[in-house]
Design goal:
1680 residues, mainly beta, five-stranded mixed β-sheet, 13 helices
């Protein structure tokens, strides 16, 4: 392994040494002996200077560099060649941007990329298009004079535009022709002739493509020898010469004088006769003439020659004698149309000034001076118009239109109710959210201003005329207008957003008065303590208002009730409590007294000074007993219970009870005995007053009436010009009422709380009706019937109520809309042509036809003319320009005519057809007769030639009606629809559903299947069928259930009520509210509730008698048990009233029902029951405590002690001490008034007092602590109103989509005025409705086919072909037009004379009938289909084209050299189809040789279009034949592939396909790529060795053998390439590792024996270059 490593090191050293030597040689000199140092420059810096423009300067860096790129000293370079480092420049400033700009030159032609590369362009096959580049010039120029400037100026502002771009050169498109037609018949019936077959051009040659091949193929034919001589000569008629005027008689007489004696006297007499006749009729015939109708009749001639079959002319006598054709005829001299000068422009149609409005139009016209006659050019346009704006200072501003609205209607809640709510019997009292509506109308917003400006201009003009004052314009700000309601105009004049027609509103819900429960009866007091002399007294009880009602406290029930009583007093002593019992005579026990603790109170229970009670003695001390040590001990009396009755009567008395219990028994002898059980309870009467309660009752307030005392004040206010309303008074009835009895005298009730009977009020203001003025009358349409008679119509005007009257204001008039008959127009608009009588038939002048046979009589073909005029529909003559603009096509001015000769047969006109007795029965006839000398001529009596009668079957007018098309939408009848309350259509109203009708069009056909008017079938055009538009049904829910009980008995809880789903919505009814997720059938409403914690209280009865265990019968004391009954009772203001279920009371607060204790023995100390625990001070802590106390009722005997009279325990949190805090609940849902469905509501939340253990307690615990209440308990909210969708009225029916035919439809539409909101009914789907139009036949003018070319009675030459203009009927479906639709021309009389939009009607045209033996061009073929010039796979398209062609037809083989050239013409088209062309093959019948042709992708066989490499025809030596593309049969009889393809064989060893060989390119040194932004795929099937856009040699290697497997050399090449790759990678690795080692060794040496190694870096334009001049020597030394 060592020798291998040394070998590698040696090889690397040699390579490095060679490189260094080579580099050293380069360092000294180059090949030419020149210096290796040269100057390099950096880029020019920014132009600097103090001024803008050419005075700046810029600099750049210049340094000396070595050819290897490193920088050296300046002295090494030639100083004479040093470039300049500074130059003058143009300093660009920002304002130069407006002075300089880039000038872009046009793009040059597209140049092929291959031609731009080195070497000559090589041929290639184009696929889609050749890639190219086109260039242009871009210069920076000064805008003012286009002078050139430096590019840097323009580049300062904008990057220089690109100078070149990619382009595509279209491939040459060869001509593509169709397949040949079948062979024609032989041109001769005997002898040698020709037969032809032709083809047409499908795609013309484009972009240098090959020209079209011959379109005609000839083939000789010979049906047999001719029996006799062939016809060799034919008469050929030439073309007519241009029409010219004949010479005047003066010129002809002058010419005749030169050759006297040559004229004929008879002829002269005939000519004179003609002139005299013309003079006699000239004036009469020209009465309708005009200078513009100058029709001159001239003549024209033609030649008739005899021609040979070889097209050479021969003497006339060689042609077979026959009737000579006409060689002279009358004609109309062509006159071009002449028009006059343009008139002045008409005033601008826009007469006001407003730049926001569209401009107007102005028009000018010119007169027709000479109408075109003959073949003269048609008239140009005689009117034109252009946009304009009014000019001048006197132009008025344009009218401005704006929307106005009436006042809002009253707010109505019932409009928002659903179907279920509307079924309620009583809809009064509804409140909350509602809907109010108004009308909108359009007005002219600046009408007053325009009137002012107009009046001022008129005054100004008058002042200038009279010159009395200098005109001046006052400022418009000083103008004041009288504000009045504006006049409504058409709504279509207003633009912009339309104001809302409806809006939500709020009706305040009346707040019901809520009062508290009655308080306790007060003491008996005087009616008035200020006057205590009266002996009548009353006990009063009161209640307060807890919820203020709407309208104030006067709408609440009475708040005070009175009870008569005796011994009234205004002040009295109130017992607060009793002191402890004190024995008399200071004894320790025995009888004693208790002093009463009292205070003085007034009649309202408020403490007052005790001196006020001095008139009444205070309560006396109460006798009591202090038990001795052996006495019986009783407890204190309990408080008196609540009185059982509130009043007393004869049968019912109120009772109160109190009790006490035995605490200790006496000691037998010597002690006071305990009383019996009955003495432990006391009962007394209470509320002994009679049940006669009185109160004041008030009636409702009466209407507000005027207060006479304020009349003068009101009058003064009104006179001051202010709109004030009077003050008035309201009264009500007040009476004294005894409860459960009725009205009693007022003296029974106390006067103090008596309500007032009068109060002031504000009288409502009167509102008069305010209306708009009447709108202008609608315009009267110029309506005329078909006969031109005016049809009577009506015009309307209307006004609107802006403010409805109220409170006695002036009422509105009843008439809001007026109509009147329109004045019929004097003349209906419209113009028509009036044609006058034809003039006498005018022949060719006699002197021109005098040499013709029969010239001695005036007969033969001629020309007659007539005049036309323009008339209004009423017959008034107007200028012809009106008809040219608005009328139909002008009638013909000339026509051919025939004057019969003496030998001609003359017949009368046909009579009318005889009448038929019935349709479809019998025949009808018409007749004519011979007239004059024709009656005696035998030839005229030939009825075959001249029939004198015609017979035809009677018309069979049978009509058949049948429906056509689809049924229309279901449409409600217009007449029976009532207006909704809003003037709008609310979805779901009865007006929008119910029974309607749908329509289907009817079509009527005659017996020939032609479409006729539906009236022929006695039909109005429709079939009607009843239909139903289902009415929407809203979601239906049950009524609300009752509220559940509050979920908590203390504090805040929730209560629930629900609705059940009864019926789901359908047909677009109101949707259901959000249902619960469980069964989707219930709606819940949950609101918070507050329960009084003292609503239910525990009430404990007195303890029972002790039951002592371990009974000491002598002492009756010891351990024992006491029980008592505890009940939960409803607490009222008068105390607990009735027992309820125990679960309603707090179980934690339930008193004990039994207790165990020790019954004191005689002489023991007896204490009373423990008092309540004192309250722990907050915050709770174990260091704090609470106590309870008791006092001694019986002192013990000597030697015995009393227990402690005080007990203390520590305060434990949540045990006996609690913290309190407020807890706020969540907001409730928005709560509405019971009479409201939506709108403003209230959301509430509750405030709880919560104990620290989480238990809700009475709110008083938190209030006592004076905790902060920072929450708002009520907020307003809004419940979205269920607004139903509101739709506008249906628009009028549109015009029919088609003027005729079966598919016409009419439409109408409506729009959403108010979209649905909340749970409102959604908009119904049909916003557009349609119905069919009545079917009308579609009439049209249509050409018949051209007739054959006619050349009178001769064989060939110039002739004429004709076609007719016929009226056809169709159903407008666009199907094929056939002759069965032909109808009478009268039905098309109302149409413009045009065919497919072409007004130039051509019923005849010149044609050429070839003579026998001539070679001629066929007629034009039909236009080919539109073809796109494209390459489908490449996605390239160069436009579309269509083409037509004329092929050559030959009749004589010897005339083929005289044939004209075939012609074709093309024109661009749109939406052409992109076709593909592929080779197809098939076998000839009974042959193995294939037949190959080119086929287009639509199946059409063509010539051209397929790939240029024509498929090689298989040689018959290969079996089977070679079918795969690019295959051929080799000399060895095997199928092989062409160059560039390799053979792929089938399993049977036969050629299956030719696969393309991958291309390996070996480019030459000159190979370059063009800078092309687009690329195209190169066709791999090209047979040439060159590819487009590339140069060099291309080798084709065939890796596959004949068997389709890889050849052996392919594996060798792959192995060699792999070894070479491994070698290269290894060499790179070794070279890199060696350099790294050298670098490390150099870095570690500071000074070497041969010198120091220093790396130096120099800056140049390409960056910093590091070099090591001494590294070579170091490398050599280290290597050695």
């Amino acid at each position: 392994m060592g020798w291998r490593r040394d070998s590698w090191h040696l090889l690397v050293s040699l390579l490095l040494l060679l490189g260094c030597v080579f580099r050293r040689d380069l360092a000294q000199t180059d090949d030419g002996g020149k210096s290796v140092y040269f100057w390099e420059t950096g880029p020019w810096g920014r132009c600097m200077g103090s001024d803008c423009g050419p005075g700046g300067s810029q600099s750049r860096a210049v340094w000396c560099a070595h050819v290897e790129g490193w920088t050296t000293l300046h002295t090494n370079c030639d100083q004479s060649l040093r470039p300049s480092n500074q130059r003058n420049c143009f300093r660009v400033c920002d304002w130069h941007k407006d002075l300089y700009d880039w000038r872009l030159g046009p793009w040059n032609p597209c140049v092929s990329v291959s031609s731009r590369t080195s070497g000559a362009p090589r041929p290639f096959i184009c696929s889609g298009g050749e890639e190219g580049i086109q260039t242009r010039e871009v210069d920076c120029t000064l805008k003012s004079d286009d002078s050139p400037a430096e590019d840097a100026i323009c580049e300062y502002f904008e990057t220089k535009p690109r100078l070149e771009q990619a382009c595509l050169i279209p491939c040459p498109q060869d001509c593509i022709v169709s397949d040949y037609s079948p062979w024609t018949s032989c041109s001769k019936t005997c002898g040698t002739g020709l037969r032809n077959r032709v083809r047409s051009v499908l795609v013309p040659p484009l972009f240098g493509g090959s020209i079209c091949p011959n379109l005609t193929e000839f083939q000789s034919c010979k049906l047999g020898p001719c029996a006799g001589p062939e016809g060799m000569y034919s008469l050929r008629v030439g073309a007519w010469t241009p029409c010219v005027l004949p010479q005047t008689r003066t010129a002809r007489q002058a010419k005749r004088r030169k050759g006297k004696g040559q004229g004929s006297g008879g002829a002269k007499d005939l000519e004179t006769k003609e002139l005299i006749q013309k003079k006699r009729t000239r004036n009469r015939l020209n009465r309708q003439e005009s200078s513009s109708w100058d029709v001159q009749v001239g003549y024209q001639t033609r030649d008739v020659n005899c021609v040979h079959r070889n097209s050479s002319s021969v003497p006339r006598n060689l042609c077979t004698p026959r009737e000579a054709p006409l060689i002279i005829q009358s004609c109309v001299l062509p006159r071009d149309c002449q028009v006059g000068d343009w008139s002045d422009w008409s005033p601008c149609s826009k007469t006001c000034s407003d730049s926001k409005l569209p401009g107007g139009w102005r028009e000018r016209r010119r007169q027709v001076l000479q109408f075109p006659t003959g073949e003269g050019t048609e008239c140009p346009t005689i009117s034109e118009r252009e946009p304009c704006e009014p000019q001048g200072d006197a132009v008025m501003p344009c009218a401005i239109y704006a929307w106005r609205t009436t006042e809002w209607s009253d707010c109505r809640v019932d409009l928002l109710l659903g179907q279920q709510d509307r079924r309620r019997a009583n809809l009064t009292g509804l409140c909350g959210g509602g809907l109010q509506t108004r009308e909108i109308y359009c007005v002219q917003a600046n009408a007053e201003l325009l009137k002012y400006v107009s009046d001022f201009q008129e005054k100004d003009k008058a002042g200038q005329t009279q010159r009395q004052q200098k005109p001046s314009v006052p400022p418009l700000i000083s103008v004041s207008f009288h504000i009045t309601a504006a006049r409504p105009v058409e709504n279509s004049l207003c633009g912009g957003p339309v104001p809302d027609r409806s809006q939500l509103c709020q009706l305040s819900c009346p707040v019901e008065c809520q009062v508290s429960p009655w308080g306790a009866w007060g003491p008996c007091t005087f009616e008035s303590c200020a006057d205590p002399s009266a002996k009548k007294g009353f006990k009063l009880r009161r209640r307060r208002i807890t919820n203020e009602p709407t309208g104030g406290p006067s709408n609440c029930p009475h708040l005070v009730e009175a009870l008569p009583c005796d011994q009234p007093s205004c002040y009295d002593w109130q017992l607060v409590g009793l002191e402890r019992c004190v024995p008399v005579e200071q004894k320790p026990c025995g009888p004693g007294t208790q002093l009463a603790r009292v205070r003085c109170i007034d009649s309202n229970g408020k403490p007052v000074d005790e001196s006020l009670c001095s008139s009444t003695p205070p309560p006396d001390p109460v006798a009591c007993q202090v038990p001795c040590s052996r006495d019986c001990v009783l407890s204190d009396w309990t408080p008196w219970s609540t009185c059982s009755q509130t009043c007393s009567s004869k049968t019912v008395e109120g009772k109160q009870m109190r009790t006490r219990s035995i605490l200790a028994y006496n000691a037998g002898e010597g002690g006071a005995m305990c009383p019996n059980i009955s003495s432990l309870q006391e009962v007394r009467n209470c509320n002994e007053h009679a049940c006669t309660v009185y109160h004041w009752q008030t009636g409702p307030w009466g209407p507000c009436t005027e207060d006479p005392s304020s009349a003068s004040l009101n009058a003064t206010s009104a006179g001051a010009g202010f709109e004030t309303c009077s003050k008035g008074l309201q009264t009500r009835k007040v009476m004294c009422v005894r409860v459960n009895v009725g009205q009693v005298p007022p003296k029974k009730c106390p006067d103090a709380p008596r309500p007032s009977t009068v109060r002031p009020c504000q009288l409502p203001c009167k509102k008069d009706c305010i209306m708009t003025p009447f709108s202008d009358w609608t315009s009267c349409p110029d309506t005329c019937d078909a006969a031109g008679n005016a049809v009577k119509t009506k015009q309307y005007r209307k006004r609107l109520v802006i403010q409805a009257p109220s409170n006695g204001g002036q009422e509105c008039p009843e008439v809001l809309e007026e109509e009147r008959e329109c004045q019929p127009p004097q003349t209906c608009p419209g113009f028509r042509w009036k044609s006058h009588k034809w003039r006498k038939c005018q022949l060719v002048p006699w002197f021109l036809r005098q040499d013709r046979p029969g010239a001695q009589e005036n007969c033969g073909p001629g020309l007659q003319t007539r005049a036309v005029s323009c008339r209004q529909l009423d017959g008034t003559q107007v200028d012809v320009s009106e008809c040219l603009q608005l009328g139909r096509s002008m009638p013909a001015l000339t026509q051919r005519c025939q004057l019969p000769c003496q030998d001609d047969c003359q017949l009368s006109n046909w009579s009318k057809f005889s009448s038929c007795s019935a349709d479809c029965v019998g025949v009808r006839t018409r007749k004519r007769a011979l007239i004059g000398r024709s009656k005696k001529k035998d030839k005229c009596k030939n009825t075959q030639m001249y029939p004198l009668s015609e017979t035809q079957y009677c018309p069979c007018d049978k009509y058949n009606a049948q429906p056509v098309g689809n049924w229309s939408d279901c449409i409600l009848p217009e007449g029976g629809r009532a207006e909704s309350v809003l003037g709008l259509k609310v979805t779901g109203d009865v007006k929008e559903c119910g029974q309607g009708y749908r329509y289907q069009a009817m079509v009527c056909y005659d017996q020939d299947g032609r479409l006729v008017e539906t009236a022929r079938c006695n039909s109005h055009g429709y079939i009607e069928e009843a239909c139903i538009i289902p009415c929407p049904s809203d979601c239906k829910l049950s009524e609300w259930s009752n509220w559940s009980r509050c979920s908590k008995s203390c504090g805040s809880g929730v209560k629930v009520r629900s609705k059940w789903l009864r019926e789901k919505p359908y047909n677009g009814g109101r949707p259901c509210p959000k249902l619960d997720h469980v069964n989707q059938a219930q709606v819940y409403e949950v609101v918070p509730c507050q329960s009084d914690c003292n609503q239910y209280v525990w009430v404990a009865e007195p303890w029972s008698v002790w039951k002592v265990s371990n009974v000491d019968l002598k002492e009756n004391c010891g351990e024992g048990v006491q029980t008592r009954k505890v009940r939960c009772m409803l607490n009222t203001i008068d105390g607990p009233s009735e027992a309820v279920e125990d679960y309603l009371c707090d179980p934690e607060e339930m008193p004990l029902g039994a207790r165990e204790s020790r019954l004191p023995c005689p002489e023991d100390c007896v204490l009373n029951d423990w008092g309540p625990w004192t309250r722990c001070s907050l915050p709770c802590a174990r260091s704090k405590g609470r106590i309870r106390t008791a006092y001694t009722l019986r002192s013990p005997s000597a030697g015995r002690m009393c227990p402690d009279t005080a007990e203390e325990e520590p305060c434990g949190l949540n045990l006996n001490c609690f913290n309190y805090f407020y807890n706020i609940t969540d907001w409730s849902t928005c709560q509405l008034s019971p009479s409201a469905v939506c709108g403003q509501g209230i959301k509430t939340r509750m405030l709880d007092c919560v104990r620290s253990d989480g238990k809700s307690v009475d709110i008083k615990f938190c209030e006592e602590l004076k905790l902060e209440k920072k929450w708002q308990m009520n907020i307003s909210c809004v419940v979205e109103c269920p607004v139903n969708c509101q739709l506008s009225e249906w628009s009028p029916w549109s015009e029919c989509s088609q003027t005729c035919g079966l598919d016409g439809k009419m439409w109408r539409q409506r729009s959403v005025v108010q979209a649905s909101q909340g749970d409102g009914r959604p908009c119904s789907s049909p916003m557009v409705q349609w119905k069919p139009c009545p079917v009308r036949p579609c009439y049209r003018w249509q050409y018949s086919a051209w007739s054959e070319c006619r050349v009178e009675s001769v064989v060939c030459g110039h002739g004429t072909r004709y076609r007719n203009l016929t009226c056809f009927v169709s159903d407008g479906s666009g199907g094929e037009r056939d002759s069965s639709g032909q109808v009478d021309e009268e039905l098309c009389s109302g149409l413009e004379l045009s065919v497919d939009g072409d007004k130039q009607i051509r019923l005849k045209e010149a044609c050429m009938l070839p003579c026998p033996g001539e070679c001629y061009l066929m007629e034009w073929s039909d236009w080919s289909s539109c073809v796109s010039i494209c390459v489908k796979d490449a996605g390239v398209d160069f436009g579309s084209v269509r083409v037509r062609s004329r092929a050559v037809l030959a009749q004589e083989p010897e005339n083929l050299q005289l044939c004209p050239d075939q012609v074709w013409e093309s024109q661009p088209c749109t939406e052409g189809e992109c076709f593909e062309y592929k080779w197809q093959s098939s076998f000839w019948p009974n042959s193995s040789r294939p037949f190959i042709w080119c086929q287009r992708s639509d199946g059409l066989n063509v010539t051209g279009g397929c790939l240029p490499a024509t498929p090689v025809m298989d040689d018959s030596t290969c079996n089977p034949p070679c079918f795969p593309p690019t295959s051929y049969c080799s000399e060895a009889g095997m199928c092989m592939c062409e160059e560039g393809y390799t053979e792929v064989l089938s399993t049977g060893g036969f050629l299956d396909q030719c696969a393309p060989i991958p291309v390996l390119e070996i480019p030459t040194a000159g190979d370059k790529k063009g800078d092309v932004k687009t690329s195209r795929a190169i066709n791999p099937t090209l047979t040439t060795t060159t590819q487009p856009g590339r140069s060099g040699r291309t080798w084709y290697l065939q890796p596959y053998g004949p068997d389709g497997k890889l050849k052996i050399w392919v594996y060798g090449v792959a192995a060699g390439a792999f070894v070479l790759l491994i070698f290269i990678v290894s060499m790179i690795y070794l070279a890199c590792s060696y350099c790294a080692r050298v670098h490390r060794s150099l870095a570690s040496q500071e000074v070497h024996a041969n010198g120091a190694a220093v790396w130096t870096g120099q800056q140049n334009a390409r960056g910093t270059v590091y070099t090591c001049p001494d590294c070579q020597e170091l490398a050599q030394s280290s290597g050695s």
